[in-house]
C-alpha cells in the first residue's frame, strides 16, 4: 500500500482529511490515532476479503474457538508489526510531529477477559493467523470489559470500563449476519404422521445477536482471520411484543434494556463459579449465536451434513461454552430432522475441550431448575445425553451405582458442565504436563478410566511477536544481530543464542538492555505512583490476578520479614530490591482485597522510611492490564511464580517473563516444571512443597500451620505483625482476617509451610543477582529456551493432534 515514508505521509494526511476533516497541523492525537487506524484497516480489509474468498473456494477444514473471554489488549502496534508497516509508520509520524508510541496509548485496551484463560485465547488467534491455520474466534462484545481498578486509601475500588466510549476502530458491525437466540418458554412435543418426534419451542423470549467482526492479522503472510464478537440487541418488534405481553406493566425501554443486558458486562470473577442466571444466559447467547453462524457458513458449502466434522472443528475454552454440545444437537435434530445417533456422531467428532483449572470452586455446575427454566429444550437434550451415558456405564459395570453417580452429568440437583464437556467431545486437554497428569490421576481419573484416549496435554504458549518482538524491541534487536531474524518465524531458533553463552561482550550487552528497560519501567512507575525506584536494585515482579493460591501473601510476608530484619538487625545484609506488584481482585473476594490492602500498607510504610532508603521499595501498580504487562515485563529481573504446587494449571506470565530474560523464582507447579526441565537447576530458583506433597496433605491431613508458627521464630514474628502493634497494623484489626486464614483456619495454601524455604531462596537469588556475568548468562539461557513456549508451536499441536486442520497459503 505504501512502500516509503513519503507514501505513508501522503496517505495518512489524506485519511485525516477524509475521515476527520482536518489537516495534520490541527489534528489531535485522538484524530491521528483514528485516521491511522482507518488507514491500517483499509489495508487489512483487502487481505481479509482475500482470505475469506480463498477459504470459501478451497473449503479447508476450519476451527472455531469458542471463548467467553478474549483478552486481546491493544491492536495498533501489533497490526503494524504483522503488516510490516512498523518502521515506515513510526518514521512518517515522527516527521509529522506525532509519536507512534503516544498514538498507541490512545487505543483503549480491549479488556474482554479476566486473566490467563482470556489472554491465551488471544495468543492462539494471533498464532493461528500467523502460521496460516484456518481458525476464528467466537466471543462476546461486552459493553464493559474487566473493571477499572482504582486505589482509594490503599483499598481496591472497582469502576466500570467503558472501553467502547470512543468508536472502536478495528470492528465491523455485520447486521446482515445477525441471528436470534431464544430463552425461556416451554417445549411442545409432538409426533409426525410418520411417527417422528417433533419439538416446538413456544412462548420464548428472543434476543437478536449482532456480530461485530474484528480482524486478526497474521504475521507477514496476507492471512486475516475473524474474531466474531456478539452483541445483544432488541429489535423494534421484540420490544413491542414484550411491552405488549407484559401489558403496560413497565415502559418499553425497560424491556429493551433487559434484552440487551445479556452482553453488558464481563463477569470479573475467575476463582469462584457464580451460578448467576445472567451468566448462564451469556453462555448460551454466545453458543447459540456462534453455532448458528458456523452452520450458516457450513451450509454455504452445499455439502451433506454428515461431512460437517470434516470441515469444521469446534473448540471450547474451558466449560463456559459447553452448551455448544446440546445446541448443535438441537440444531441438527430439531431444525434439520437428523436422528439422535447421527447428530451425536457429528457433535462428538467436532467438539474438543480444554480444561484450565482443577480448583473445585471454579468448576461450573448449574442448578437443574435454572437450566430447565432458561433453556427448556437444551435441558431435555442434556438429560438424554446423561441418560444414554449412564446406560453405557451400566453396561460396562452393572450395579456400580457409586461410579455412575460420580460420573453422571446430572446429579445432586446440578448439571455438571465438565462432565458434559468430556462426554460430548472427542478430546480433553490440560494446559501443562503436570496439570494434565493431575487431571488423569486425580480430578478426572474416573473419566480417564472410561475414555483413556480422549485425554492429552497441550502445554500453553504465548505469542513471541507481541511479548518479545513488539514489547521489547531492544532485546529483539540484540537477538537478531546475534543470530539473524529466523527466530521471528521459527521461534525454536532462539536456541541458537546458546552459542553466545560464554560471550562476555554479548552478556554485557544483555545486561545493558535490561538496564535500559528498567529505566523505562522506573519512569512508568514514577508517572503512575510518584514513587522513585532505584534502577540498580533487583526488580522483583509479581503480576497476575490476586488469588489465595497465587500466594501474593507469601511475598508480602517476606517483605515484612525483610523490613523487620533491616530495622532491627544491624548485621543483616540484603541486595537492594524493588518489589513490584499488580493484581486485580474479584470484587466479591474479601481475602484477596485484604491482601491488596496489606501490600499497599507495606508500601506506604517502607517507602516512607528514611532508614532503609536505597535498600527497598514496594510498588503496587493499580489497574493491571495487557498493556501494563507489556511495560513491566521487559524490565523485570525476578519473576515470582509462587503458587501452591498443584494449583496453577500452567501460568503464561511465567513464559512471558522468561522470554524477556527474567529468572523465575517459583514452585514446581504448572509450566514452571517445564521451564525447569529446559533451563536446568542453575537458571531457575525453585522452592517449596511439591505437588504430591500438597495433594497428600490435602487428602490425608497432617499439616499444622500452628506448629510451624510455634516452631519458627521468623514465622511467628512476621505473622504477629499482622495483629500485634506493628508499623503495618498500627494496632488496628485490619489484618486480623489474614492472620486467621493462616493460623485459625490452618493456612489452606501452605504459605507458612513454604515460608522458610522461600526466605532462603530469596536470599540466594539476591546474592546471585550481584554476580552480574553469571546472572546475564542465566538470563540468556532462559531467553534461548523460551521459544519452546511460543504459541505458534502449541497451536500446531492443537491443529495436528486435535483439530486435524492444515495450513493454507493466502496469495494476493
Ligand atoms: C466460572 C468462573 C471462572 C472463570 C474463569 C472460573 C475459572 C476461570 C478460568 C478457568 C481461570 C483461568 O484463567 N485459568 C488459567 O488459565 C490459564 C490458561 O490456561 C492458565 O495458564 C492458568 O494457570 C489458569 O489459572
TrEMBL record:
CDD domains: GT35_Glycogen_Phosphorylase (cd04300). It catalyses: [(1->4)-alpha-D-glucosyl](n) + phosphate = [(1->4)-alpha-D-glucosyl](n-1) + alpha-D-glucose 1-phosphate. This is Alpha-1,4 glucan phosphorylase. It comes from Halobacillus naozhouensis. Allosteric enzyme that catalyzes the rate-limiting step in glycogen catabolism, the phosphorolytic cleavage of glycogen to produce glucose-1-phosphate, and plays a central role in maintaining cellular and organismal glucose homeostasis. Phosphorylase is an important allosteric enzyme in carbohydrate metabolism. Enzymes from different sources differ in their regulatory mechanisms and in their natural substrates. However, all known phosphorylases share catalytic and structural properties. It comes from the Bacteria. Its EC number is 2.4.1.1. It is an enzyme of class 2 (transferase). NCBIfam families: P_ylase.
